[in-house]
Specification:
Rossmann fold; 8 strands; 14% strand
């Protein structure tokens, strides 16, 4: 049986994980898994049900009950069979997801879901704890980073918001939550390769990760 291949890309908000993971998955013909979208999906469901995203027991129950799927070869996210790809990208959902993702029971539930997805085939999975917690035995682990100013600039480009100070404050607060939460904090796995993308183009980051994949695949298969 062919060995399943997990490429784990972790890092702070605004480091470019989603863009790079999508590109790498496309090059490798792997399934791209945006774990942040899973927390957003739970947050969206909570908002629709008018539930408090800080309610630990209710959020854990939602996370366990949620059917979250990713369509191979696309960026579509399905929640309980509904395409919520656009719906989970609002500011309201983003803010709620930041709260939901800090709840230990939610993280445990979604980690199990993520492991199930990874067991089904070759994936590029990005998030905050993929290489450290979800798949500590991943074939390739990357910790993708960028300096704070560059991460703020990228978020400005993505959102169209003109208040740089507000964006910088949001990123700083997200960093604080991610790094200090009790369950699965953002850390660089000991065997992850640190990659600073501050001065690199998407193409350069993509090639650096593909080079790691080629070097670490025991069967010697080349990916192009």
């Amino acid at each position: 049986m062919a060995r399943r291949i997990i490429v784990a890309i972790d890092g702070p908000a605004g480091a470019g994980k989603s863009t790079i993971a999508r590109r790498v998955a496309q090059r490798l013909d792997f399934t791209y898994i945006d774990t942040g979208a899973m927390y957003r999906a739970v947050a969206l469901w909570a908002i629709r049900e008018k539930l408090d995203p800080a309610g630990m027991q209710q959020m854990e129950e939602l996370a366990k009950a949620a059917s979250i799927e990713f369509e191979p070869g696309s960026v579509r996210v399905l929640l309980n069979g509904e395409d919520v790809t656009a719906a989970i990208r609002t500011d309201e959902v983003s803010n709620a997801a930041s709260i939901v993702s800090a709840i230990p029971g939610v993280r445990r539930a979604l980690v199990e879901t993520q492991r199930g997805i990874g067991a089904a085939g070759n994936v590029v999975m990005e998030g905050r704890d993929i290489g450290s917690v979800v798949f500590p035995d991943a074939a390739v682990k990357v910790f993708l980073d960028a300096d704070a100013d560059e991460r703020a600039r990228r978020r400005l480009d993505q959102t169209g918001i003109t208040d740089r100070d507000a964006i910088a404050a949001q990123i700083s607060e997200r960093d604080r939550r991610d790094r200090t939460r009790a369950e699965s904090p953002l850390v660089q796995a000991p065997d992850a390769v640190y990659l600073d993308s501050t001065a690199l183009s998407h193409e350069e980051v993509e090639e650096a990760i593909l080079k790691l994949v080629r070097a670490r695949m025991s069967n010697g298969k080349e990916y192009h």
